[in-house]
Amino acid sequence: MNRKKKTMDGNSAAAHVSYAFTEVAAIYPITPSSTMAEETDAMAARGVKNLFGQTVKVAEMESEAGAAGAVHGSLSAGALTTTYTASQGLLLMIPNMYKIAGELIPSVIHVSARCVSTHALNIFGDHSDVMACRQTGYAMLCSANVQEVMDLGAVAHLSTLKSRVPFLHFFDGFRTSHEVQKIETWDYEDLRSMVDMDDVQAFRARALNPEKPVLRGSAENSDVFFQHREACNRYYNDAVATTEMYMNTINEKLGTDYRLFNYYGAPDADRVIVAMGSVCDTIQETVDFLNARGEKVGMVKVHLYRPFSAKHLLAALPETVKHISVLDRTKEPGSLGEPLFLDVVAALKGSAFNDVPVYGGRFGLGSKDTVPAHIIAVYNNMAAPQPKPEFTLSIEDDVTHLSLPVTENPDTTPAGTTSCKFWGLGSDGTVGANKDSIKIIGDNTDMFAQGYFFYDSKKSGGITVSHLRFGSSPITSTYLINKANFVACHCPSYVTKYDMVQDLVPGGTFLLNCIWTPDQLDSQLPASMKRYIAENNIHFYIINGIKIAEEVGLPGRASTILQSAFFAISGILPVEKAIELMKAAVVKKFSKKGEAVVNANFAGIEGTSDDDKAKKFIAEVYAMNERMNIPKGFTQIKEEDIPTIVSRALKEANPLYPVPVIFDEDRMTQIVKKLMITE
Length: 679
What we know:
Structural class: alpha/beta
Mean pLDDT: 91
Radius of gyration: 31 Å
CATH topology of the largest domain: Rossmann fold
Shape: globular
Low-confidence stretches: none
CATH superfamily of the largest domain: Thiamin diphosphate (ThDP)-binding fold, Pyr/PP domains
Number of helices: 25
Oligomer: single chain
Helix content: 40-55%
């Protein structure tokens, strides 16, 4: 089945697929999930119809607790209802989640998983929020990348309708929620073909109706509560089979291979990592690298975390495995191990893998970056004579000494991938311009594209680093770029604050936006930067985007000029094609702000000031005259004729004419002399 390809982030993918199955969206914004609600609201405003021919009703509440209550009430009234949240917002929904699950009401919550505040506030990603929901009764389905968010988001909505078990569909906050990827999108007709309308009708028939009263939400005592609580068991057993069925349905449609637990790697692997979320793509990339040099390693990617199916996990493991490491993106202080680790240990007990040692590791808390070097350390730990049974990744633990040593840092990105980094200042337009670049390349070429944008918590006024990758094959590098082909610094003060060029591979390109002339660079650049540029044959370009921006009418907004410079230098697209596509993006983005703003951005893209435009206009006039055989001057004019010509011309001048200026005798004489051909 051919699907339309589009460049978008994980939040937009979740909104696209959830809108199809949603009648009511009860929302409250919280970073990094807000975009899902915003996209849903925007689609509703455009009049997009869901699978039932309706426009989604969006209701913004006064808190996440209010949103959860509205979801519960709307579901009870027979409307398919969705919400989107993260972190503390999700925790505020837990009381209602217990009720929705206990009443077996089909529903989906889409979560961009984010760190929960502990000793400090952290607005970035890990799994501490979703792990707090394990015992609510919600099924938990994890997507590892933007494409999976699109595909498995549909599985969540279809499975909840069939099984009646509510689903929490989660993916990594900021990494997946904000990562821009070129993916295949659902056509709503294809989704409609998979919906069992009998399930929808059954859901509506269970709605509270004064004409057909039912007992719900009662209080029970010890004589019957336990019995009724156990009555849900079969629904959760069936939910596993239902989720697998819909994964298989999608596989048949798309040619994919989604499973509850996906194995990747050597069929005879002796060391295997079990994990879930965006780190799985990094592990996959590392597995390819290690196996290519003769090792035998693999990975199990967890999709359906709750209900946890031990049978399917065991079926995914290769029979040859001798060591297993489980990676958790959360910390549960005081526990014998993190949640996924304990589940895996329990699943292996009494099985054919009963004697296989299992090691538990923590990674990625608060969006701490996890790169292939750290994954290699995990595999090396399993091969060590005395492996660490508990460990941490990507930090230097000098207190409890749990960290694993990093022994190598290879470049594992697929061959043919171009990696680019852009250093900017929050709100200077760098991130927006780079998002446009990703979409231009992704939507208008056959290339794969990935964009990720690192902010500090200040955002506006803080540092931003855009990480862009382009290539001919799918990009699975879900980590920050540390080996770049192109680096641009949009804020000149950064040259003395950050080691930017050290990320460049030998022969790479560095673009610096600054007000300095080439002669001034020697005194402005740090010695370490100049040394690295010289020793690694770095191609060094400078541009005064600040000055050009002022000249074209975009003071303080040099991002458009620098975007144009990037396309000119990188060669990713032919310059003419890039300019054409950038202009189209400008029209789409700024047309509502008026023609002057659009034209200013056009000038920035072309790198032309008003003076440049005037010169270009004059050149075009000369060229037109030449094509029409209009002479540049006249041989008939003699020196002695000039006073007469000037005098007669001046007599024709009239201050009442609507002309910009009336020439005096000296100026007119100069003009006439220019018309003389003295050859």
